[in-house]
């Protein structure tokens, strides 16, 4: 990884509007932030987040998964080539709607993080806000974790909680959680980029 004087270069992977990407970019512009957002890469050529990234002056790229059919690893190898060409040190998943193969996860082991809209290990997978409401929990939230081969199972770096209020539906709960995501993700990325947390032998280590 890059030395402290040369901040780690971050590649953000998106599939949609990139709201978490925007919060990461804006925070990374602040003096002293320990990482540089160097690339925004999407598997969707017309993802709105690409234009938003370009507006910040950040390099963008597209690797359309549809052109690879069912060959997920070939798609990921193409992404990996782009990431290497941009000298990326850390990969951040921000609304990237593809499940990674073991090959890609191993390639970026300890250098790839994801944000998930639940308090892991609760409510893995999709429709987490619906799951939370159906379970009748009193609090919900989001988690940033290292990516491992098992879906949403990597060691948790940081979490933020929100109350589940009477009358909440999926949309109101999702909006409350998303606000927390925008604050949590830049903090978690800073911890990883600075070396304050790391993935060692499959476990989270805080330094």
Automatic annotation (TrEMBL):
The keyword Transferase applies. Its EC number is 2.1.2.2. SUPFAM superfamilies: Formyltransferase. The active site is at 116 (proton donor). Coiled coil: none annotated. InterPro entries: Formyl_transf_N, Formyl_transf_N_sf, GART. (6R)-10-formyltetrahydrofolate binds at residues 72, 114. This is Phosphoribosylglycinamide formyltransferase. N(1)-(5-phospho-beta-D-ribosyl)glycinamide binds at residues 18-20. CDD domains: FMT_core_GART. Residues 9-189 form the Formyl transferase N-terminal domain. PANTHER family: PHOSPHORIBOSYLGLYCINAMIDE FORMYLTRANSFERASE. Keywords: Purine biosynthesis, Transferase. Belongs to the GART family. GO terms for molecular function: phosphoribosylglycinamide formyltransferase activity. It catalyses: N(1)-(5-phospho-beta-D-ribosyl)glycinamide + (6R)-10-formyltetrahydrofolate = N(2)-formyl-N(1)-(5-phospho-beta-D-ribosyl)glycinamide + (6S)-5,6,7,8-tetrahydrofolate + H(+). It comes from Bosea massiliensis. The record marks 152 as: Raises pKa of active site His.
